[in-house]
Every structure is written in structure tokens, then in C-alpha cells.
Write a structure and sequence with these properties.
The protein is built from 10 helices and 5 strands; from the N terminus they run αβαβααβααβαααβα. Helix content is 45%, strand content 12%. By secondary structure, it is an alpha/beta fold. It has a single domain, classed as Rossmann fold, CATH 3.40.50.300. A 5-stranded parallel sheet has the order 2-3-1-4-5, sandwiched between helices. The model has no long low-confidence stretch (mean pLDDT 95).
Length: 260
């Protein structure tokens, strides 16, 4: 399948983003609580997909959580504890750019956790997610699946692009080297945590544009919503009371130099 053209992508994206705005109103109206978590290999397209979801909606409703490596204190806590403090209140959608599944992925592959800790995570995770869902939170788990050749192409593009070099770290290049170890870790994770109450959905992401559209469409299909009626906004007539030359009053202030 050929890559999606930009013009077609942007037209479809606008339609879906209108749906996200309607979903936003519905979530606020009904005080819903939603978690959308994104997992996948490095360069799978998580960041770009999250940006496509959030660029036209309110950050007070759609909240993105991308946690750094755990501190020494956090390492001594329950594995899910530092994520739970970011869980949504009524009327919020929280998007996790990586999640508690770090324990099944990077922490496991890189040897940051012992094998018994990894096994215990896989055993307990479905139970914890059952509590989350039973509490009334809508939980959507998305895995972006990028192919080996496409990941290599994206890594090379980052190496050569000064605007994206910040995305590469020694951890990223090491994860690139351990492709098959990550594949086995992924398979173990799916086998243990793909449940009826919290299933995984896999998104093919070699074509970033198609992946973004498919992700948004899936979210809109997964959360039943209706359009919330909005009263038409009419701008009031500006008051002329106290009229003065409000631009002349700015003379003598510092302005940014107009380079463009």
C-alpha cells in the first residue's frame, strides 16, 4: 500500500479532529474519565499521533503524561503508583505517552528489573486494570507496531535532522540493537495482559499518516458519545466608554524587533 498523500491526510484529519472536539464536550458534560495509553518501540510514531489527537482540543480536558525515568524514591514504590497520581478526574482524558508497561518493555529488556519482578508485573497487571475499569474509567491500550526497516529509516532521519536529534538517546540506540529481545518482551506482555476488560489494540504504523487517522478513529469508536448542543456565540458591541488612544500609550515600550 502506498503512503497516504498529505492533502488526503489533512482532509481526513480535520474530520476526525471535529469528532474529538465533540467527544471533548461529551466527556465534560458526562464527567467521564478516560485513559488512553500508547506503547510501542522507539520511533513507532507515538508522539506524532498524540500531537494529532491533542492539537485542536483543550489541554484542560486532554492531558498528556510523559514521565521521566523513576527517581530513587519512586523505584521503591509500587510499580503503578507514580502513574496513578495522574489518573483522570471527571471530565478528563489522560493520554500516557508510555505507561506502567515500561516494566514489561524497556525495564525488562534492559535488565532494570529482576525476572521475578517482571513475572509478578505480568501476573498482577490484569488485576489492577480490572480495578481501574471497575471504578468506571474507560481504558484504551494502543500498541503502535513499526517494522524493522521503517524504524531504521526513522532513526537515520533523526541522526541527520538537527530538529529531531534530541529524540535520540543512548537508550534508544541500544533498544534499536535489541530488536528481537523487544519482540519477545512484547509477545510476553500481550499474552499476559490482553484481557477482555482491558484489551490491546495494535496499530500498524509504518505509514505515520494512516496510523494517526486509524488511532483517532478507533478512539472515537471506542467511546460512545453524542454531540452536545452549543448555543451560538454572538460578540457583544464594544463599549465606547472611556475611549482613548490605547496604542499611543505604548510608545516608549520595548517591542520585539520585527525580523520578518
Amino acid at each position: 500500500m502506498s503512503r497516504m498523500k498529505r492533502k488526503a491526510y489533512e482532509a481526513e484529519l480535520r474530520k476526525l479532529q471535529v469528532g474529538l472536539c465533540q467527544l471533548q464536550d461529551w466527556v465534560k458534560e458526562k464527567k467521564l474519565r478516560v485513559i488512553i495509553l500508547f506503547e510501542g518501540r522507539d520511533a513507532a510514531g507515538k508522539g506524532g499521533t498524540i500531537k494529532a489527537i491533542t492539537e485542536k482540543v483543550s489541554p484542560r480536558v486532554f492531558r498528556v503524561v510523559a514521565l521521566p525515568a523513576p527517581s530513587d524514591r519512586e523505584r521503591s514504590q509500587m510499580f503503578v503508583q507514580r502513574y496513578m497520581q495522574h489518573f483522570p478526574a471527571g471530565g478528563e482524558i489522560v493520554i500516557f505517552d508510555r505507561s506502567w508497561y515500561n516494566r514489561a518493555g524497556v525495564e525488562y529488556v534492559m535488565g532494570f528489573v529482576e525476572p521475578d519482578e517482571h513475572a509478578r508485573f505480568l501476573q498482577l497487571c490484569p488485576q489492577i486494570e480490572k480495578y481501574i475499569v471497575d471504578a468506571g474509567i474507560i481504558l484504551i491500550k494502543l500498541w503502535l507496531e513499526v517494522g524493522m526497516e521503517e524504524q531504521e529509516r526513522r532513526f537515520n532521519a533523526r541522526i541527520d535532522d538537527p530538529l529531531r536529534q534530541w529524540k535520540l538517546s543512548p537508550m534508544d540506540t541500544e533498544s534499536y540493537r535489541r530488536w528481537y529481545e523487544y519482540s519477545r518482551a512484547r509477545d510476553l506482555m500481550f499474552e499476559a495482559t490482553h484481557s477482555e476488560h482491558a484489551p490491546w489494540t495494535i496499530v500498524r504504523s509504518d505509514d505515520k499518516r494512516r496510523a494517526r487517522l486509524n488511532c483517532i478513529a478507533h478512539v472515537l469508536e471506542t467511546i460512545p458519545y453524542k454531540s452536545v448542543r452549543r448555543d451560538k456565540v454572538l460578540l457583544p458591541k464594544r463599549s465606547g466608554k472611556g475611549r482613548y488612544d490605547d496604542q499611543a500609550s505604548l510608545e516608549g515600550m520595548n517591542f520585539v524587533r520585527e525580523r520578518y
